[in-house]
Amino acid sequence: MERRQVPVLVAGGGPVGLATAVELAHHGIECLVVEPRETVSWLRPRAKTTSARSMEILRRWGLAETLRSRAPLAVAWSDEAVFATSLLGREITRIDRCFGLDLVGSDLAAEPGQQVPQPLVEEVLREAVGDALLTGWQVTGLEEDADGVTVRIAATDGAEREVRAQYVVGCDGSRSVTRDAIGSRYEGRQDARPNFNIVFRAPDLADRVPHGPAVHYWVLNPAQPGIVGRLDLKDTWWCIAQGVRAEDADPVRLVRNLAGADIDVEILATDPWTARMLLADRYASRRVFLAGDAAHQNPPYGGHGFNTGVGDAVNIGWKLAAVLRGWAPEALLATYESERRPIAADTIEAAAANMATLAPELADPALMGTDEEFAKVRPAVAEAIRRTKDSEFHSLDLVLGYTYTGSPIVASGTGERLPHRWLAPGESLYDRLGRAFSLVGDLGSPQAASLVAQARELGVPLEEVDLPGEPLTLVRPDQHVAWRGGDPEGALRLALGHLR
C-alpha cells in the first residue's frame, strides 16, 4: 500500500478544511487536504454570509479582494433585511446595517462583511490551496501513536492508501471519522421544526419586487412563512420554507407561496434540513484536532456557522505552525480546545436565541387581511421584529468582540482582538502585522528591547510596528492580544505555552 508523509493532514476540504490549509501555508507548513468531492456544487449554497472577521482573515491571507471581486452581490448592493407579507407583497418593516455590511471604511474592522455563496468561498480557497488538495478521496480511519498519526484514505474506485502525518485536523463535518477516532461525542439537541431549502431560477422576478435590494426578504405569511434571497443579480434565488417536511414539499408551490404570485419558476435544487445545537465534548487528542462542523453545529440564523470554523482554522493553524517550526513547545496545542470550545458554545447559544423567533412566530393572520387590518396590526409586528431580530443582524459583539481572556497563554486582562485602526487611506494597522508575532507601539521603550530580546532567544519571528508614544502590545499571529503594558518579563514565553 502506497504511503505518503506530511506534517499535517486535513480531513475534509469544505471551507473550514481549506481555511486550515491556507493558514498553514501562510506560515510555510505543508499539508494534505483529503476531500471526497471532485468539484464544488453550486446547487446547495449553504452559508451565504462571510463575516467581517472572516473577511479580515481573508485580507490577512491576501484573498479578500479576490473574493469580493467575484461575489455576485457587491457590499454596496444592500445591507438591509426586509420583512413583508410576501416577496411581492406589503412591506412591514426593515432592518439596516445587517451582518457588518455597513463597515466599509469603519475603524471597527479592516473589512466589512460580504454576502457570498459558500461555493464561491470554497472555489477561492481551493485555488489558494492548490496541489495540497486531494479530491476524490476520503479519510476512513486513523490510528494515533506517540510519534504521529497513520491515516487511512480511500478513493471512490476502491483504491486505498495510508498517509503518515505528525498531526491531523478533522474538518470532516457532522459524520466526522476523526471525531469518532478520538472518542469525542456531540452534546446538545436538535430543533423539532423541519426546514426546506430551495434554489430556483425565476426570470424577471427581481423587476417585480417592490421593496428594493435586500440581503434577506422575510415572508410573514402564516400559510407559508420563510426567507427569500438573491444568489446573483440575474435570475437565481434561494429560499427557506420554514415548517415544511420533505415528504410534504411541492417546491414550485412553496416558491410561489413565498413570492405571493404564480411566477414562472425553475427548481434547481432542494435540501431538507433541521437545525442542530451540538458541541463536541472534547476537541482534541494529543495529535488530532477537530474544527468546524466536526466540533460544533449551530442554527444558521445570524450567519455564524462556517465563520466560527474559520476562527478554529486560524487558531489551530498558527499553533501547529509554531510547534512544527520549532519556536513553540507542543504544550501550546493543548490551548486550542480551551480557547475555541467556549467560543463555539457562545455561538450556539446566540444562534439558538435567534432561532427562537422566526417567521412563523412573527406572522399574524391580520397581516394578510384588508389594508385596514394590515395597517392596524403592522406597528405591533414591526416592534416585535425589531425587538427579537436585532441581535441576529447586529452581532458585532460576537463576530469581532470574542476574546480569549482567561486563556493560559494570554496575560491577565488581555486576549481580545487587537483594536483596529486605519493608518492611512486603505492601510490597516493589521496590514503591518507579521505572520508570527508582532510588537506594536512605542519601540523606543525599555519594554520593547526586552521583548525583542526574548524573541531572539526563543527564535520567534517578531514584526516590529513602531507607533511612537503608544503603549506596547504583543500581538499573536491570529491578531489577538497576548500582552499589553506592565512587566514584559516572560511575556513571550507565556504566549507560546512554555510551562511556568
Folded structure, characterized:
The protein is of the alpha/beta class and 500 residues long. Among the domains are: 3-69 and 111-187 and 277-354, FAD/NAD(P)-binding domain (3-Layer(bba) Sandwich), CATH 3.50.50.60; 422-495, Glutaredoxin. It is built from 14 helices and 23 strands. It has an eight-stranded mixed beta sheet, sandwiched between helices. Strands 1, 2, 7, 8, 9, 10 and 16 form a seven-stranded mixed beta sheet that branches. Strand 20 (437-441), helix 13 and strand 21 form a beta-alpha-beta unit. Helix 1 packs parallel to helix 8 (305-324). The mean pLDDT is 96.
In angstroms, what separates the terminal alpha carbons?
Answer: 45 Å
DSSP E strands, number? 23
What can be said about the biggest beta sheet?
Answer: 8 strands, mixed
CATH class of the domain at 3-69 and 111-187 and 277-354: Alpha Beta
Strand content: 25-35%
With strands numbered from the N-terminus, the spatial order across the biggest sheet is: 5-4-12-13-14-11-15-17
| Uncertain runs | none
State the CATH superfamily name of the domain at 3-69 and 111-187 and 277-354. Answer: FAD/NAD(P)-binding domain
The global form is: globular
Which percent range fits the helix content?
25-40%
The radius of gyration over CA amounts to 24 Å
How many helices? The count is 14
Quickly give the structural class: alpha/beta
- By CATH, the architecture of the domain at 3-69 and 111-187 and 277-354 is named 3-Layer(bba) Sandwich
What number is the mean pLDDT? 96
CATH fold-level topology of the domain at 3-69 and 111-187 and 277-354? FAD/NAD(P)-binding domain
Cofactor: FAD
Keywords: FAD, Flavoprotein, Monooxygenase, Oxidoreductase
Domain FAD-binding: 6-350
GO molecular function: monooxygenase activity
